[in-house]
Amino acid sequence: MRIALDAMGGDYAPAITVEGAIEAINEWDELSIILVGNKEEIKAELNGRNYPPSLISVRHASEVVQMNEPPTVALRQKKDSSIRVALDLVKSGGADAMVSAGNSGAVMATALLVLGKIRGVDRPAIAAVMPTLKGLFVLIDAGANVDCKPLHLLQFAIMGEIYAKNIFNIDVPKIALLGIGKEDVKGNELTKEAFKLLKNSDINFIGNIEGKDIFTGNADVVVCDGFVGNITLKVSEGLAEAITKMLKREISNRTTGRFGYLLLKDAIKSFKKKTDYTEYGGAPLLGISKPCIISHGRSTTKAIKNAIKFAGEFHIKGVIEVISRDIETKMREAEEIALKK
Amino acid sequence: MRIALDAMGGDYAPAITVEGAIEAINEWDELSIILVGNKEEIKAELNGRNYPPSLISVRHASEVVQMNEPPTVALRQKKDSSIRVALDLVKSGGADAMVSAGNSGAVMATALLVLGKIRGVDRPAIAAVMPTLKGLFVLIDAGANVDCKPLHLLQFAIMGEIYAKNIFNIDVPKIALLGIGKEDVKGNELTKEAFKLLKNSDINFIGNIEGKDIFTGNADVVVCDGFVGNITLKVSEGLAEAITKMLKREISNRTTGRFGYLLLKDAIKSFKKKTDYTEYGGAPLLGISKPCIISHGRSTTKAIKNAIKFAGEFHIKGVIEVISRDIETKMREAEEIALKK
Question: Which domains does chain A show, CATH number per domain?
Fold first, then answer.
């Protein structure tokens, strides 16, 4: 498969993006990558590196969307941005999927404009993967839609179910609604209404899940609006970092601790691997008509490499085709059930 | 000071509540405690224990509000609950403050009915304390009000500022709004409007703070609605527990790890102390006319002991008196500034 990589996206681009692309090409077969962005800068990074030249090509884009620019600026004033050119490649069939660690709001807005939504989807959502004690879960929406209606949450649940079935290979994924108490009467106006819709749909809805329980592994898909989802994702990231720092500080305060740390190095490394977002690569924009993967702004080489791998998997497994096939039927069914009640 | 303790509140009551009360009495001077609840059960727990009998008394209450009961049930059907009787004691002047690890929704609703709000406060809020790399911060609202208006968030900010000044002894606390991006244009409808109000008020508003930055210690007070606040609190609690479990699992998988763990025991203990909610005791209902402290449902002896200590500190420092004195003026000022813009 052919991946269009936004080589200018992310805090450490283009050095890290080019390096991630080379590592991906050297690690996986049946892959080719189009690096999109400033060709001089990209070629300077490629210079002297060891990779099969037939599998990495460069597509020039004269502009870069900055991390703090509003999506409207990207859309109106930067029509030759690396984000836009990469998405155009996917649209024209020149690439199967797009990966960007750049401004996620701009990627979302440009993807909506260039690629459009899957028919039947009201609001595309970001599906982020997070670790649990047993494995992984999908958090949807992790930040695309800050103000949602109950029906949007139902769509996120349906898309999350399709994701978990096809990417995690779970036959009947457990879907939960992120809330502040298990009972259906607990929640805000949005989640109380969404609870009814989810309960009356044919997905395997296990009810509300509280924040403290999302890491137990009891739910495969956790549904929420994009504001709450973004805060959940970022609080988790910030706390994991803070805990690692606090532990290191505690350890370095102690002589025996330093010795203990050496003994523990492997354990801490393995733990960090399990909680490290870079292992999971990227988060797809579910509901967009072609594969479009957002990677973390602070992506490392490994994160870019894994996002490229994930984009390939997402394309091959045909997640978008399943959503296209099922979303309208499932939404119609849910609406019919809701009307009957 | 005299603390009315809901002896029946919490998952391990009355064993843990009675034990926490005895430890508090034995540890701090100028304290007396009224244990409120089923007198037979409480006396059975007190039996044979070592404590000054003049400092612990028992007040009978025939009913207990269960953890999953809606607040309306507590209000209408359980008029002799331990929560109600403890709050009646505070109202009548028989106690200076109330502490409960029971059903927090029921405590809030009953406190509103029995003690009422401070004049000028629209919505009392839960002010929870959380750890950072540098110290502590206050999260307000941590769960009392699930659907808020921008003006409520301004009130939470003002009450949080008073809390941080008086309890943390910070002259000019830094107040931030929990959001999804630093820029004022980022957020949902609620936070974008609240941002303007906070910016135009005379509090030391440092802008939006993202989830990943709340643990850095850059903000002393983090303001949000109670739905987002509860999820932030619970996600943090759940993740800290999951990380501890994952680390222990990684360690026990390794022979050298076990040895390392022994060496590290002190470091891990000290780290746990810093991230352990039981150290911070309880969260006050800011905006209620008398001191009313909510403790965690899973409170241990130490958590109850610290909540009692905190209730005393909260009473002595006169936080409620400062809120009563300042809230109306500060809200009027904020409204005048907003009107002028």
Answer: 2-121+287-318 (3.40.718.10), 125-276 (3.40.718.10)
Match 């891990």 to its residue by tokens: B268
Contacts of B256 in chain A (CB under 8 A): 263-264, 266
Q: What is the C-alpha separation between B129 and B139, in angstroms, rounded?
A: 6
pTM for the predicted model, two decimal places: 0.92
Q: Does residue A14 contact residue A8 with C-beta atoms inside 8 Å?
A: yes
CB A321 within 8 A of CB A193: no
CA angle A59, A63, A65 (to 5 degrees): 115
With CB atoms and an 8 Å threshold, state whether B239 touches A240: yes
d(Cα B86, Cα B35) in Å, to the nearest integer?
A: 8
pLDDT tens readout for residues A214-254: 999 999 999 999 999 999 999 998 888 888 787 777 777 76
> Which helix or strand (DSSP H or E) is residue A12 part of?
none
**Would you tell me how many other CB atoms lie within 10 Å of the CB of residue B85?**
23
The Cα–Cα gap between A198 and A333 comes to 12
CA distance A257 to chain B (A): 5
Q: Could you tell me the CA-to-CA distances from A339 to A49, A194, A234, B5 in Å, in that order? A: 61, 14, 37, 49
Q: Helix B39-46 to helix B15-27 angle, to the nearest 10 degrees?
A: 50
CB contact under 8 A, B185 and A260: no
Encoded tokens for B262: 């022994």
* B264 vs A: CB within 8 A: yes
| pLDDT the model gives residue B232 | 95
Nearest residue to B222 (alpha-carbon basis) of B153, B323, B291, B170: B153
User: Quick one: closest CA in B to A235, which residue?
Assistant: B211
ipTM greater than 0.85: yes
Distances, alpha carbon A54 to alpha carbons A89, A90, A94, A303, B251, in Å: 18, 19, 15, 23, 45
Q: What pLDDT is stored for residue A37 in this prediction?
A: 98
CB contact under 8 A, A212 and B268: no
A147 and B189 in contact by Cβ < 8 A? yes
Among the partner-chain residues A238, A266, A268, the one whose CB lies closest to the CB of B212 is: A238
For residue B235, give the nearest of A236, A259, A268 by CB distance.
A236
Confidence of residue B48 (pLDDT cuts 50, 70, 90): very high
> Edge to edge, what strands does the sheet with B2-6 contain?
B56-60, B32-37, B2-6, B97-100, B292-294, B283-286, B125-131, B136-140, B221-223, B175-179, B205-210
Candidates A134, A227, A233, A276: best to mutate against B (most CBs of B within 10 A) is A227
Q: What is the pLDDT of residue A115?
A: 98
Q: Which of A67, A286, A46, A319 is nearest to A155 (CA)?
A: A286
Q: What is the mean pLDDT of chain A?
A: 90
